[in-house]
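It would be a great kindness if you could assist me with a short task in structural biology. The matter concerns a single protein, recorded as an amino acid sequence and a row of backbone structure tokens. The record follows directly beneath this note:
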Amino acid sequence: MNLNSTQNTRTKRLALGATALAIAAAGTFGAVSASAAGPAASTPGVGAHDLTTSTHLTVAAATKAAQAALDAAGKENQKVSVAVVDRNGNTLVTLRGDGAGPQSPESAERKAYTAVSWNAPTSELAKRLAQAPNLKDIPGTLFLAGGAPVQAKGAPVAGIGVAGAPSGDLDEKFARAGVAALDK
């Protein structure tokens, strides 16, 4: 075999390899594009019957609710923090009021998370501890009054938690003020 024949063979192998790589890449991108098209795509995968739809509070609505709760507390000279979490318990907004204690933002988030998780005010949930004391061991929860669920058609879409007032009843009153602001 001469030098030109060896170079031609290498060139052909390189061209074939590049072509194979291009075909593989095109197939991969095609699969990604097809699967990104959604459940109506004809590629195997998740069908429409395997999906659910959920409703979430917008950041604008969460901010409105949090500010309304903070304003309600301010009218009573209470220094609190307010948190709003979405249906999945992810924090959307946290407002730490002037002079609120350092523990209050985290407590507010945990109350909001607890309220949305059980779709009930945390004051009611705190009463359940007598029958089920292990509830308090669930990570991220706080079974003290001050959390209120936000509902759409009876289903939870968010939770509002308030912490820092001298009583949980006040905290919950302010959280309910945040919920009420969403009805306006």
Q: What stands out?
A: The beta strands are 81-86, 91-96, 147-152, 155-163. The chain has five helices and four strands. The longest helix spans residues 3-36. The two ends are 87 Å apart (CA to CA).
